[in-house]
Amino acid sequence: MNGPLKNLLVVDLTRVLVGPYCTMILSDLGARVIKIEAPEIGDDSRKFGPFIENYSAYFMSLNRGKESIALNLKNADDKKIFDKILSKADILVENFKPGTLEKWGYGWKEINKKYPKLIYASASGFGQTGPLKELPAYDMVVQGMGGLMSVTGQPNSEPTRVGTSIGDITAGLFTAIGINAALYDRQKTGKGMYIDVSMLDCQIAILENAIARYLSKNEIPKPMGSRHPSIAPFEAFKTKDSHIIIAAGNDKLFEKLCNILDMPELNNNSKFSDNSSRAKHMDDLKKILEDKLKIKETNEWVKTMEKEKIPCGPIFNIKEAVENPQIESRNMIVKAYHKVIGDFKLAGNPIKMSSYKDEKTRGDIPDLDEHREKILKEFG
Description:
By secondary structure, the protein is of the alpha/beta class. The chain has two domains: 9-206 and 328-379, Crotonobetainyl-coa:carnitine coa-transferase, domain 1 (Rossmann fold); 234-238 and 243-314, formyl-coa transferase, domain 3 (2-Layer Sandwich), CATH 3.30.1540.10. The chain has 17 helices and 14 strands. The strands form four sheets. The protein has a six-stranded parallel sheet with strand order 5-2-1-6-7-8, with helices on both faces. A three-stranded antiparallel sheet has the order 9-10-11, covered by helices on one side. Strands 13-12-14 form a three-stranded mixed sheet, covered by helices on one side. Strand 1, helix 1 (18-28) and strand 2 form a beta-alpha-beta unit.
């Protein structure tokens, strides 16, 4: 693809989600990505469902536009091929257990001596330092250890995982951000650098209000369902047919909401006259608002509130979210070609850049070792 990272070569030693998500972003931004996979087995996610004609939709959605070659980095001949690719590369991304690549002769110190301009990014469960560095971790492990599950779900409910693999995805995003910062630094210094991203660290970094409450007030937050801990009304409310999200994040918006609901007196009630007061009386406020909101269906309320510029919306399922005309207009559902199943739909790139066209298609989806001949001809 064309993009700001065009002509940059990324060597992708990653598998499953955190690393492939990072390199997918780099690919969508124009970088060439060569994915190094284990011979015969390939990326573990090739065996993750759902499947289309025995091909993993999970794998395809994360690895569009990449080239695949199977190499055994313990094999002398394959290591020679890998070294030749590395010699031309700008970026190396890996998500092995810390210490694995050092055993194979590809740790940061060795790589930096050979290829001083190479940017080397490692994404792992707990990072390259600290007492937990050698432990394995999956998304749900860091969601739990990072405190995220403790503030997710309904009050007094069982521990609840966020509906997507937010531990992997945030680490993939932070790794991509780090790589782009390192590229800018390399323009100034001419040197590569090492980037160490921990999935657990990333969970701490996104705790937002929860960590602020603890560090400033020594208060341990608990799950609150859809409610915001310090802004009201800012949650899901029952309507006649479903639910509506209302996010009246300041006093002016709350006044507008009261007028729409034909309850102007509510805004003059000392319990609800400012955000701080409303936040202290959220339960009372919710009951009053829902008694009124249950009169009409969600779509009716949304249309009325949108006219007054009150932030609101329905709660969509995945089908409704994907088929939203706004999503279509933003080119957020795109296609990539697979030589057996044909066109495959997947999520697009939310980064829209004025200097580059956001194409409706992405690069082809690779089979395992599909590009061996091409890569060997170029680097062999």
